[in-house]
Structure formats: C-alpha cells, structure tokens
Amino acid sequence: MFASTILFEPGRSRPERSFVQQAARSLRLDGRRAGEWRDVKLSFGADWGTAAVVLGATQVLAKVSCDIGPPTTGRPNEGRLLLNASLGGVAFLDEGQVLHDQRFLALNSLLERTFRSSRCLELESLCVAAEQHVWCIRVDVSVLNHDGNLYDASTIATLAALMHFRRPDVTFSDDVLRTYSEMERDLVPLLFLHFPVSVTYCIYKSSPQPLVDPTILEENAADSVIVLSFNSYKELCTLNAGGTAPTNAQTIMQCARNAAARSQAVVTFIRKALELDEEFRMQGNPPSPVTLLGERSLKLSFRKLM
User: Fold this and answer.
1) Cβ(63)–Cβ(48) under 8 Å?
2) Is there a contact between 194 and 121 (Cβ–Cβ < 8 Å)?
3) Are 246 and 88 in contact (CB under 8 A)?
C-alpha cells in the first residue's frame, strides 16, 4: 500500500518539486519562456452551447442548457445562472484522491465568482414573467484531461459555450406559457454585460519571474498561485492569490497588466471563432458531436486566428 495517494499526482514528490523550481530559473520544461502561453484550440459542437477547449494537454468540455423555472425571492425579475464543474474525467483526480474536494471546490468557486458574482450576463433579459417564470441557464463543465491550468481552460470553455448558446423564444400571455421551436422562431442568443477570462500565474521562491499558464508539474511545484480574471474592458473581475511565496505589489501589477491584455485577446479570439462557426453552419456543415475532440474535429487555433 502507498503511504499517500497525493504521490499519484505529478509534481507532488520532493525531487519533482526541486527539479521544476530549478528549471524555472532559465527555461521551462516544455521550452516556453516565463511569459509565454500554450496555444488555445477551440471547437464547437453541433448543439448550441457546446464548446471544447484544448490547452496543451488539458482538455475541458462545456455544455450549456436552459429551462424555465421560478425566480429567486430576492430577485424576482432576473433569470438564474448555474455553474457546475466535474473532475470525473481525470483518472488521478477521482473521488478517492485527497485533493479532489479541494480542487473541485476551488474550480467551482472560481467559476462562480468569475461569471455569476461579476454578473457578466444580462439576467433581466432572461425574465419571462416577473415573480413567475424566468430562464435558468446551466453550464456543466467537464474536465477530460488535466495537464495544468484548469482555471483558464474552464473559463475560456464556459465563456465560449455561453456566447455560442441559443435559447428558444417564449411568450407568456393570459397565464399561458408558450415555447416556440426553432422552425417557428429564430433562437435567441444570450445578452452579455462583459466577457470575463481568467489568467493563472505560478510563483516560485527560487525565481523572481512569474510563470504564466503553468503545466501540472509547474502548478504543483509552485510556492504560490495567482489567478486574475479580467473582462474585455480590462476591468478586474476576480483576484485569487494564495501560497507561501512572498508577493509584492510590483509583481501583482505586472501580472495584472499582462493578464488584462491576454483576456482581451482571448475574447477577440472567441468572437472570431464564433464567426467561423457561423459560416460553416450557413454552408450546411455543422460540426459532428462525435468528433468534437477528435483528430478530425475543426479546432480553431489562437495562434492562427490572432
């Protein structure tokens, strides 16, 4: 029997931590510089509101669904946004692992603060009848493979899925609620107030330069992790910093400036990807749900579009 199940996760052993921290002083293990991101590949499914993100070897799938239900008592004229992340697709992050609950809660908390607490959606537009019927928008995020930086991959997939989603049109008259099919009326996209995206940095005591977009080895060997969420207007939505490495204000501001520019670029990339997806659909070539993450799927690359 193993003494601790934490050792199953890469980067948790002492030799690995020491090796990664020494390598961070010069060149990272995958050949990137400290401020260099991995390429983001985005693909959309045949159903509206389905998006898959590949960030290095990290793979995340987001699926948006909707239903009509009662509003909350505190906000009777606003719709509801529900987010749920699942780590069941990764073998070493199953429920038997010591860090499963911690990572699960951290990922769900980040998604809640980035999208729900920042009120990125125009929730009043989701109201059908005040105090009676509102749209409930649910986002299910499934982690299919984890090679570091789940936060960024999950927020990109969630935002892309929400921007790609279309809901049915509905009317409420004489206490009769009618939902129209796609053949009767055009589907309605969601309305946004802003578009948030997170950027993750790792900090080591042995290196003064923060590492952006960490792999799982770099993430587990880090002394501190900083997650900043900015929208396309370069406004800060979420800041999460924790660890043992001392972090001064200059380092935080350096990370914030780079993260704001990165978030703006990612939002622009998602918009271009949505335009290309719409063109393919207009040509009668919707993507196949079977090949969403396969080799034959249409993966739109950040480096090629930007």
Assistant:
1) no
2) no
3) no
| Both tokens assigned to 47 | 């159903």
* Rounded distance between C-alpha atoms, residue 134 and residue 129, angstroms: 7
Q: For residue 291, what pLDDT is reported?
A: 54
- What is the rounded distance in angstroms from the CA atom of residue 208 to the CA atom of residue 197? 25
Tokens of 164: 């790609």
Q: CA-to-CA distance for 55 and 283, rounded, in angstroms?
A: 28
Query: Distance between CA 130 and CA 150 in Å, rounded?
Result: 37
Between CA 79 and CA 81 the distance in angstroms is 7
Q: Residue 298 is encoded by which pair of tokens? A: 């249409």
Q: What is the pLDDT of residue 3?
A: 43
Q: Note the Cα 117 to chain centre separation in Å.
A: 15
Query: At residue 194, what are phi and psi to the nearest 5 degrees?
Result: -160, 170
- Which tokens go with 247? 């972090």
pLDDT digits (tens, 9 = 90+) for 123-162: 999 999 988 999 999 999 999 988 889 999 999 999 999 9
Confidence (pTM): 0.90
Within 8 A by CB and 6+ apart from 185, the residues are 168, 169
What token pair was written down for 125? Answer: 């537009």
156 burial class (0-12, 13-18, 19+ CB within 10 angstroms)? buried
Q: Tokens at residue 136, please?
A: 């409930």
Closest CA to 136 of 90, 167, 100: 167
Summarised one tens digit per residue, pLDDT across range 70-87 is: 999 999 999 999 999 988
Name the residue with tokens 């969420």: 229
| 3-state SS class at 33 | coil
Distance CA 83, CA 63 (A): 10
